[in-house]
Amino acid sequence: MSEAAKITGTLAIPRVSRNNRLYLPSELEAAVKRLEGKEIPVFWEHISAMNAIGRAKLFWNPEKMEIMYEAIITDPEAEKKVRAAPLKVSLGADYERVDYIDGIEVLRNIMLKEISLVAVPGIPEANLQVIESVFHIHEKAVPFEETPKADEGRSWDADRAVASLRKWASSDGSGDKDKIDWGKYRRGFTWYDEDDPENFGSYKLPHHEVIDGRFVVVWRGVVAAMAALMGARGGVDIQSEDRRPVYNHLARHYRQFDKEPPEFEKLEKIREGINHAEESGLWSEALNLTAELFKLCGLEYRVPKPRVKVVINTASQGG
Predict the structure, then answer these.
(1) Would you say residue 176 has pLDDT above 90?
(2) Tens of pLDDT along 79-113?
(3) Across the strands, what pairs with 42?
């Protein structure tokens, strides 16, 4: 399928829609979470009696407080119409109840069912962008998910955690690569290479673990991931544009543990300082900056003491 069959954009933001319904940010975020990463169908003008023309994944953007979507149009005729006409997207959803505030409907417990290509969307800001062949989404941050927490004092062993995720995500509990549900496995990390999703090496910065069958976030894993993200040359190798989304993901876990995340800009400044110091051979300065970075992230780091080489002269003295 051509790249032109992919579309992306904003689906919903917290506001009053054209039909006088208020979408609250907490309700929108919870609605995306209920999908658990599952795809939803794409229709024309909410006409579900017709065959779906594509499928979409939804993501919550905590910075902009909006639902984003990435969709693939699988119907060839629909693909032509997407490219030829100035279309928009619209949200199709059910809900458990409606509260009324000053005559405005406030939807509660929203269940996202489908998105549709329309001429006039219910939320004006909803938009559609055709992804041309020159634009590819190669790598990206994993959407944040507020999972249950492990005990805050639990130690972090990345190898142990990854092994538990592999067993949990495999159909038979073996952890074998050919049995992995990669969408499920992805939930334990903050970043993956979308171009190579069926490769264990494509998944980086783990911070979840499966303990007694429960998928939980581990505080020290979150801290370790943040330090690795900002770890200068010793950190993780991801594209620069992915750094902020990954930081945002981890920052939300900090708040989940009632911790204030370190400021992104401050960490970036320290990271750049470490790089400059190492390039200049200022190893003591690099170590001190690394200690500062680790402390901000919540990790203990002790600057190694320089070793003193003692030379004992055993040559005889005298004539």
Answers:
(1) yes
(2) 777 666 556 777 788 878 777 776 677 888 888 88
(3) 54, 115
CB 70, CB 56: distance < 8 Å? yes
CB count in 10 Å sphere of residue 159:
8
Helix axes 283-297, 264-279, angle to 10 degrees: 160
Work out the percent of the chain whose per-residue pLDDT is above 90.
Answer: 26
Q: Judge whether 191 and 238 are in contact, CB under 8 Å.
A: yes
Amino acid symbol at 29? E
Residues 70, 252: Cα–Cα separation, whole Å: 22
Mean pLDDT of 43-66: 77
Is 160 within 8 Å of 187 (Cβ atoms)? no
Please report where in the chains the tokens 């092994």 appear, as a residue.
Answer: 163
Would you state the structure tokens that stand for residue 237, as one six-digit string? Answer: 């190798």
For 275-296, what is the mean pLDDT? Answer: 87
- Counting other chains too, the contacts that 19-24 makes at CB distance below 8 Å and 24 or more residues apart are 19/122, 20/103, 20/104, 20/105, 21/104, 21/105, 21/106, 21/107, 21/122, 22/101, 22/104, 22/105, 22/106, 22/107, 23/107, 23/110, 23/123, 24/106
Give pTM, 2 decimals: 0.55
Largest CA distance in the chain: 109
